[in-house]
Amino acid sequence: MDSKLTIDKLGNKIWKLPSGKRHREDGPAVEWGNGDKSWWLNGKRHREDGPAIEYSNGNKEWWLSGQLHREDGPVIEYSNGNKQWWLNGQLHRESGPACEYNNGDKYWYLNGINYTEKKYKLEMRSKKLTKLLK
């Protein structure tokens, strides 16, 4: 699909389909004048080979088909060290806290449900036992 580039008076570059949806297959569909970049396919934030949003301040976000999603690391990496893990649009992490903040705060989530650390560990033990018994 061919997308058309428009540049507004602020210098923002935006590639869109005739339908008006943001779309570009060979690079970011939006290049903001401040240096931020975002990748879009058919009107949805989407990138398979890296973060779909790269902010000029160093923050990064991974999106797939319009949802925060990443299987091999945090989906949001803030330049201050804060991190969040999401899967299919929900806070989720099976190998530790889904939210880690630079002040030491940590929050555990599975499929969007918040757990205390203790309940999270019990839930993960139960999942492992269920897998072993299958």
How is this structure best described in words?
It contains 1 helix and 17 strands. The strands form 4 sheets. Strands 1-2-3-4-7-8-11-12-15-16-17 form an 11-stranded antiparallel beta sheet. The chain has a two-stranded antiparallel ribbon with strand order 5-6. It starts with a strand and ends with a helix. The relative contact order is 0.08.
DSSP, total strands: 17
Order of helices and strands: EEEEEEEEEEEEEEEEEH
The end-to-end distance, rounded to whole angstroms, is: 46 Å
Discrete helix count: 1
Quick one: overall form?
elongated
What strand order characterises the main sheet?
Answer: 1-2-3-4-7-8-11-12-15-16-17
Helix-and-strand structural type: alpha+beta
Largest sheet: 11 strands, antiparallel
Approximate helicity band = 10-25%
Tally the structural domains: 1
Strand content: 25-35%
| Contiguous uncertain segments of 5+ residues | none
- Average of pLDDT: 96
Radius of gyration computed on alpha carbons: 18 Å
Task: Provide the fold topology.
Layout lengths: L3 E4 L5 E4 L13 E2 L5 E2 L1 E2 L2 E2 L7 E2 L5 E2 L1 E2 L2 E2 L7 E2 L5 E2 L1 E2 L2 E2 L7 E2 L5 E5 L2 E3 L1 H17 L1
Antiparallel strand pairs: 1-2, 2-3, 3-4, 4-7, 5-6, 7-8, 8-11, 9-10, 11-12, 12-15, 13-14, 15-16, 16-17
